[in-house]
Amino acid sequence: MKTPRTVLVALLAAAALTACAGPDDEPAGSGPTGAAPTTSQPDPVPSASPSRPDPTWKGGPSTPPGVGGTTLSGTIRAGVEPNCLLLDDHLLVGGPRDLLKAGATVEVTGRPEPGMMTTCQQGTPFVVESARRG
């Protein structure tokens, strides 16, 4: 009688785990190639590579900021961590790094992203969509 009870417990555990899977979840090995599916995480700091400028940048803002967009202006200061730039207590994420440097007076357009994780320990992340000298 011990074997049927063990089998019953195993089946109930399997059913409980299967019920936790969402509609988009696939079991491991069920992908098109039979390999376990992979998940890719988005880059937490979009276009924030300080060593190369953003190739899509076309200059200053030509239109007002879109919905949720904000324009900031002032003098950029260096943060406490390397490659961290602050403007009015906003951490500048992305944008043309050849223009965005400590000591530069600029006007930037973008949107605040308070939930974004960064390696900088200060400022509210602000994703720069365009920038120009101020």
Automatic annotation (TrEMBL):
Signal peptide residues on this chain, from the entry's feature table: 1-21
Name under which the protein is recorded: Uncharacterized protein
Top-level lineage group: Bacteria
Keywords from the UniProt entry: Signal
Keyword Signal among UniProt keywords: yes
Protein's organism: Micromonospora humi
Region feature (Disordered): 21-75
